[in-house]
Amino acid sequence: MEKGKNGPDSRGRPPAPNGTAGGADKEGACGVQCADCTLDAICKLLDYANGGSAVPDGVLLRERPVARGETIFRIEDPFRSIFAVKSGSFKTLIPEAGGREQVVGFYLPGELLGAEGVTGGAYPCTARALESSRICELRMERLPETGRPLEALQQGLIEILGREVAFGHALMASLIRQSAEQRIAAFILNLSRRLERRGLAGRVFVLTMSRADMGSYLGLASETVSRVLARFQKAGVLTLQKKQVQVHAPERLADIANL
Amino acid sequence: MEKGKNGPDSRGRPPAPNGTAGGADKEGACGVQCADCTLDAICKLLDYANGGSAVPDGVLLRERPVARGETIFRIEDPFRSIFAVKSGSFKTLIPEAGGREQVVGFYLPGELLGAEGVTGGAYPCTARALESSRICELRMERLPETGRPLEALQQGLIEILGREVAFGHALMASLIRQSAEQRIAAFILNLSRRLERRGLAGRVFVLTMSRADMGSYLGLASETVSRVLARFQKAGVLTLQKKQVQVHAPERLADIANL
DNA sequence: CGCGGGGTTGACGCACATCAAAGAGAGTGG
DNA sequence: CCACTCTCTTTGATGTGCGTCAACCCCGCG
Description:
Chain A has six helices and eleven strands. The first copy, chain A, is α+β, with helices and mostly antiparallel strands and 259 residues long. In chain A, α3 (180-197) crosses α6 and α4 (211-218) crosses α5. At the A-B interface, β5, α2 and α4 of A face β5, α2 and α4 of B. Chain B binds a DNA duplex (30 and 30 nucleotides) through α5.
């Protein structure tokens, strides 16, 4: 359980209208620095890290705000860009019969979105913001304009995709065959670790997605998610008030998840 | 219809083999030509396709035989090579608590094994032959010796990994939340299509893995796999004798799987 | 103030895991 | 060539985790 994709972010305030002009809020506390972003290696390569770039405009778009509920790409859209989450959180989903949607991933600050579309020319899923967020966009189709050697860029991509694949395997192993308690324990723990890896708070954070989203992702009914979380709270493993979780005993979660 | 799980692309990694019937494994009739192998683009690039290669020996090892039950790489082994299945079939697995093992993938002729290890420097799972098989091995660490531009090789890798990721998503969507019948129908159908894509027989083939392996992969008990297959047979959707399956009504399978 | 969506909680039933036992090959040894 | 063992498969009986249905609560919003 570990690698990849799912999760919320650690912030706490749901929706700010639009562009919380950063300051008065804790918005600052919940994003990642470039140094903690997965896209950083590529940004640096493009000389974007220090601003004085000779690269044409429009190849890398920095820090665009995205409103809660906004869709940044839709399934079947032609593949254009890879996105890095700078703050906030996203889910990816696949439409299902009957108008339902299956959540296939959650993305936290510092993680990359859309790399799955690099093959096949189209995105295999839809990506939607769970709260008001900020993203960087790397327009793949315009990379050749930069005149940079592609080799290092490709190397970066390979790293990213390789991690996704390995994570996917581990994830499958943890979902299939596990009880509801095990899945949810692993999920919470996973979120916690991913946040900490980026230098964010991993013991106290906000579950930005709905119980139904979690359930869809974990293959459980939202009622079950609710019940299990209540059980965890009763057992003193964590505390939750509304969407905010505080993890008291990560080791007990690990134990439940049988890691 | 609900989740479409395999859609247009359908690559993947489930299981199955094809092959030889009967008791001894002869793998003659069930292999793929180089033209149908995923590694082919890279082989060609190395001039291996036509034999007259200036590339140092030992970079690409061709057609090594592998005995049933043999392990070609183990979890945590340092990453060295990517393997292409030329004939036979493999499973990949992750050890679980309690000595059990979780099957995370099946690999058929023409498919690639081990690409997941390209990141992180180690294989994230163990790969074992389900029957006596043949593989080609591409030693990644020695690629630089070839003096070839890496760009095209990398491009190939990106394609491969991208497909894996997309497939993983679709797979998750199809496993989570589906009934035993749906999972098994989708599984059989997936095998069938993957075989056909490589020019092998997709209506009659051999399930080289055990029911327990299938169950592990699909998140079901082996008894359930057995029962469901029997039910399918009774319904006239397929016939099975021993490990050999004959699919009579792929469209009914698709219907059950709700594709 | 009334409406609607998300969350919690309870009752009920079913699909599937688990336990158990018997049958079918396949490999081994005498 | 025939017992013997071991593994894999099948089939039956029993139990239970969690999905489904339904009611209710809480909160934000128009």
